[in-house]
């Protein structure tokens, strides 16, 4: 009986571990396919190492820079849509920080960023 319980426990742990790995892969795939290209098109002119002048002290080149954020705090908080400043800015919820200033992103692009922030919570 003990051997059966041990094997069942090992199998359960393996399934849980694979689920976490898949979630991390989901965040990486979403970033590579949708988020990074979006940031390159709409944000990097002002918020990257390539910008002549980094606006607002915020770089969006890497996850680490987004987590660090700028004067307004972290650009993203994994799993926390309400406290991710980047989301508030792209939704035009911040009167002084409506990004990008040239025009609001499509609903589809905003949903993609929201999904990415959600799945980052479980990414390793």
UniProtKB/TrEMBL annotation:
Secretion signal, residue range per the UniProt entry: 1-19
InterPro entries: Cyt_c-like_dom, Cyt_c-like_dom_sf, Cyt_c_Planctomycete-type
Key word Transmembrane helix present: no
A GO molecular-function descriptor: metal ion binding
Domain Cytochrome c: 14-121
One Pfam match: PSCyt1
Top-rank lineage group of the source organism: Bacteria
Keyword Chaperone attributed: no
UniProt keyword terms in alphabetical order: Heme, Iron, Metal-binding, Signal
Gene3D superfamilies: Cytochrome c-like domain
Name of the protein: Planctomycete cytochrome C
């Amino acid at each position: 009986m003990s051997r059966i319980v041990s094997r069942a426990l090992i199998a359960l742990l393996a399934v849980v571990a694979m689920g976490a790995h898949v979630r991390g892969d989901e965040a990486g795939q979403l970033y590579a396919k949708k988020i990074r290209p979006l940031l390159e098109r709409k944000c990097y002119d002002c918020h990257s190492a390539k910008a002549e002048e980094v606006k607002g002290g915020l770089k969006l080149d890497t996850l680490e820079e987004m987590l660090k954020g700028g004067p307004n705090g972290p650009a993203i908080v994994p799993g926390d849509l309400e406290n991710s400043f980047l989301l508030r800015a792209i939704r035009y919820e911040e009167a002084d920080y409506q990004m990008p200033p040239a025009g609001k992103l499509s609903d589809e692009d905003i949903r993609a960023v929201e999904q990415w922030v959600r799945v980052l919570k479980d990414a390793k």
